[in-house]
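WARN retry 2 of 3 for item q-0093 after timeout on previous attempt; input resubmitted unchanged.
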Amino acid sequence: MAVRGAIYHHKKFVFKNGFSGVKYIILLNTPGTNDPYLFVKTTSQKKNRPLKPGCIENRSLFFIPANTTFFESDTWIQLHEIYSITPDEMLLERILISQRREVLTSN
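OK item q-0093 returned
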C-alpha cells in the first residue's frame, strides 16, 4: 500500500517541459484503489536556493539538509508542481518507479 510521504526513485521521470531524467519523487497522498498518485519532485541542485531548513514559502520549496533523513545531499522538495500518476500508469511503470523509503509522514 502506498502511503503519503513515501520516497520513490523514478528512472525516467517526465518533466512538465517534456524532458525526462532520473528523479526522486515524494508521494503527497495515500491513494485509494482508483485514486491518482500525487507526487512532487526533489532536487539537489542548489541554483541560488536558500539553505534554511523547512518550508521556504515564497519559493514553494521545502529544504532538507544532507543526512538528516533519507537524502545524503542537501535536497529541496519542489512544491510548485504536482504530478499525477494513475494507478494503471503506476503498474505500467513499476520497472521505472521503485519505492525507496517512507519519510515525512504523520499519524
